[in-house]
Specification:
Distance between the termini: 66 Å
Structural class: mainly alpha
Low-confidence stretches: 85-89
Order of helices and strands: HHHHHHH
Largest sheet: none
Number of strands: 0
Strand content: under 5%
């Protein structure tokens, strides 16, 4: 694909890509995602051929999702104010709930403890945790899911009767 062909394709695709990005992000963030997608396409210019619709749309969507994942709020345990819905217990203070949760976490197998602590207390990404633990991300996600489920089950058993 030549530079002129790319410019024509980019001008044609830009409104549609903005539409896709705005489904995920607001204002300037959507614009940035589209710009980033077009930049990445530009860098692959020699390998591209028209039409770019599908590739550009998927690339934009993936960039938006990545942006949302990076923004995922994490809250240190010391600042936690309330338990998730369904786990609030009568008059327990936030500190009591945190203490109860940590007691349950300490009863988990060592690998599940490590994964939960790295993800939720340290706020690390799944890729970083996978590198540290020497597992792949799919197995890590499954282990994290099982650990969360075990904590939720124990908490409801012990404190919500």
């Amino acid at each position: 694909m030549t530079q002129e062909e790319f410019k024509d394709e980019a001008l044609r695709l830009r409104p549609r890509l903005l539409e896709v990005a705005r489904r995920y992000l607001d204002g300037d963030a959507a614009e940035d995602a589209v710009q980033d997608a077009l930049l990445r396409l530009w860098q692959m210019l020699g390998q591209l051929h028209a039409p770019l619709d599908a590739l550009a749309t998927v690339l934009t969507r993936n960039l938006c999702v990545s942006t949302l994942r990076r923004r995922q709020p994490t809250q240190p345990l010391s600042e936690a104010v309330s338990a998730p819905d369904g786990l609030a217990v009568g008059t327990a203070t936030p500190t009591d709930r945190i203490e109860r949760m940590m007691n349950i976490v300490e009863q988990l197998p060592p690998m599940q403890q490590t994964i939960l602590r790295l993800r939720h207390i340290e706020g690390m990404t799944m890729a970083d945790i996978a590198a540290i633990t020497g597992t792949n991300e799919v197995a890590l996600r499954k282990a994290l899911s099982r650990a969360r489920q075990a904590v939720r089950l124990q908490y409801t058993k012990q404190y919500e009767q």
